[in-house]
Design goal:
The structure is a single chain. The chain has one domain: SH3 type barrels, CATH 2.30.30. It contains no helices and seven strands. The protein starts with a strand and ends with a strand.
Length: 88
Amino acid sequence: MRSKIFIKRSAVNGTAEQERDSIAIFKYELGLKVKDTLTPFKGTIIARAEYLSGQIQYLVQPDGCMDNGSPIGLEWILEYRIKTEGES
């Protein structure tokens, strides 16, 4: 299910008084377990971002840790590369 986030943005061209509403629609919810379709990376979505270009990315925190016990780094993953663990 996609989340709808309402964001108030200042107009790119024009005065600060001119504003427009934008709807960022995210395909995946925060806290969802996902995997990267191009790499073996998988984990839990902890943040998401929408850029002016329209690109949407999710910050994924991996499950577990490295063999030596240190944490695995977080990864920003593009929306089209993400699948839920139940999706094929």
